[in-house]
Amino acid sequence: MRGVEPLWHNAPVPAFGGVDARLLVVGLAPGLNGASRTGRPFTGDYAGDLLYATLQRFGFAEGDYGKSPDDGLRLVDCRITNAVRCVPPENKPTTAEIAACRPFLEAEIAALPTLRAILALGLIAHNAVLTAFGERRSRWPFAHGARHPLPNGLLLADSYHCSRYNTNTGRLTEAMFQEVFQGLRRYLDEAD
Ligand code: URA
Prior knowledge:
Layout: E1 23-27, H1 35-38, H2 46-57, E2 61-62, E3 74-75, E4 78-82, H3 95-110, E5 117-121, H4 123-132, E6 147-149, E7 155-159, H5 164-168, H6 174-191
Parallel strand pairs: 1-4, 1-5, 5-7
Antiparallel strand pairs: 2-3, 6-7
Helix pairs in contact: 2-6, 3-4
The structure holds uracil.
Residues 27-31, 34-35, 41-42, 45, 47, 82 line the site of uracil (URA).
């Protein structure tokens, strides 16, 4: 099968970052040639280039992003996971996959005692987080740049996904993405 090489990770991709993080970034699913190959979320594909550069810019990552899990990059007060843990067929997660992975997302969130904010990258991540909390989607509609102060005390922030498709089509610009992180930086700096 294309891309499934024996030396690749080819398995559920664990979250990256410390469990003492106040910010959890929730992506969609491992990329075939990215996280599913390297075993670290967003590592080795285009979406990671933009995500990690932006995290570094706003102090959520330190070191060099070398597109490999052994690059020494460290997340600071931030953890990254995905709504879906394995690479989906055609890169489009099915409803069944999203539902099957939800318990892992719930466990991931429950394991972060100092969590303050969740950034959902795209509608699927946004909906997965809302469902994990038992919140109605109609009450908290997804919109790029939206912030939802959830009843459980966590802030859910939304961004368009930092995929190559979204940046190539101009749906998401670097400036738009940076604005989201700037807002989160400010929110967390003022939180304590
Ligand atoms: N890589 C990930 O780990 N998640 C995404 O959503 C995209 C690329």
